Amino acid sequence: MSTSTETLAFLREVRLFKDIAEPELMILGQSLQERPLKRGQVICREGDPGEEMFVVRRGSIVISKLVTGRVEQVLARIGPGDFFGEMSLFDRSPRSATVQADSDATLLALDREGLRRMTEVSPKAAAAFFHALVLIFIERLRASGDLVAEVTRWGLEATGLDLDSR
Amino acid sequence: MSDLRTSSTPTPPRRAKLELLVRPANNAEESFEVREIGSATAFVQSRPQRLASGSFELAEGGSRMAGQRHFILKNTTTERYLMLTEPEKFLWEQMDGRTSLQEIATAYVLRYGAFDFDVIPNLIRKLQRAQLLTLTPSSRLRQALARNRRQPVVKAIENGLTVLERINISSRNVQRVFTAMYRFGGCLLFTRAAVVVLAALALAGLAAGVKLWQEGGDIVAGFGGHAIRAILMVKLLFFFTVATHQIVHGLALVHYRRRVREFGFTFLHGFVPTFYVDVTDIFMASRRARVVTAVAGASVHLVLGSIWFIVASLSPLGSFTQAFAAASGMIQWQAFMIALYPFCFIEMDGYHVLVDVLGVPTLKQEAMAWAGALARGRAPRRFGRSEQLFALYVALSALSVAAFVAFNVMLVLHASS
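Above: the input entities. Below: the structure tokens describing the complete assembly.
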């Protein structure tokens, strides 16, 4: 994909790429594949193999995990500038959640080869990329802890379980 | 999931929410609906399921205090009990696993014409507690020791009490033993003839006791100037009769076809050696059965006290036998009074009869909490029937304990002089 001015302007706003200089960003942009999606379209299902990570360029994406039968728990709703799918890209494990377009959307896909190329061409840009990635991982880890606490609280309130008075 | 950010300004407690993605039944994967479910919504839509019939027993108790009916609910698997009011029993009966809490609340309003917003959550908590926890309340002494355990002496006392508390010689397989005792003579204790004999003994014992009291100075001369040491020996002997008291409680349970779940010996609060019998199964029987069970155990002390007094009155004046018998009779009768007298801050047999009649199973705890709040100036201004009862209980108990202590001091002084 050739890196248009518009795409470059978008990538500059993405937190994951914020510390990457423009020349490297243009090279990175060439590794990104644009994927248009219709509302409801499933990008990947929980358990699928994964080779790419995605940056949301337009639209809204919902990430969910199967709870039971037809019911899934919504883990996150993400929009322009957010990314997902990086876990399978790095550890080659199956997708941990189902990802689906909540509206018409456009994604930018970065595969393992594109990531390798960026690391080879510009280790400095790769370091900036991974540093930003680690910071976002930390945020997400903290949010996961909050989510566990929230779900636990929900369970206590929904069942009327009162541990205070025990 | 709802916003997890926190605010620095105080806000009312927020109800947790879950975001669920629900797919349609036709399995069209691309369509879905996201529903936000608040915990409060989930709670009112939950469908509580009571135990299967056969796993619980429900028996009616009674209450004259509030003019309400009470029911005892027993989980026959965990052997836990709950007291339910009539509205709570109604709610319990609705909890069939198909009816939501919202529907149960509606049924409640239709039946009682009003709704108490706490009644269902409180009942659910009670039910959960009854199934999940065994509460062993610690004594005030243990609480005080725990607060000061940094001091080596206090720590040592606490450790000592903990060791003593662990001494528990008991058996849960005693039903057969009690049934055999009942069959081979114990049943005679629950006949009209036994009541007549008890009354006759009590009268004879009273007459002997009055006579002995008038001769008090000469009687204690039999101890040979070692009155206090002799009284301690009498108390040691008395301790073993407590076992008989508990055995008769157990026989009463068999008489009313209930189960004796445990009999044993332990150190109550770590320092009061005592025998005990688990009579909780009598909660499922009639009030008459509960009262007879409570009184039967205490009657042991009336019988033994009367016999000791009669022995003392027949013994040579000033002899050791007469002194020992008289002192034993006195302590047995005191035990009888204490066991049946409900106003002494101790939850003995008489207290259980009283709270059963009043329908206030936590009278002492509530009265003490009320008195504590009153002392701290935090008692509610309302002085209704409950508060009057609490005040009466605390006042009578305080006076009674003071009178009991004074009587014993007088007794010892009388003996020593």
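Note for the figure: The beta strands of chain B are 17-22, 33-38, 56-60, 70-75, 80-85, 168-171, 263-268, 272-277.
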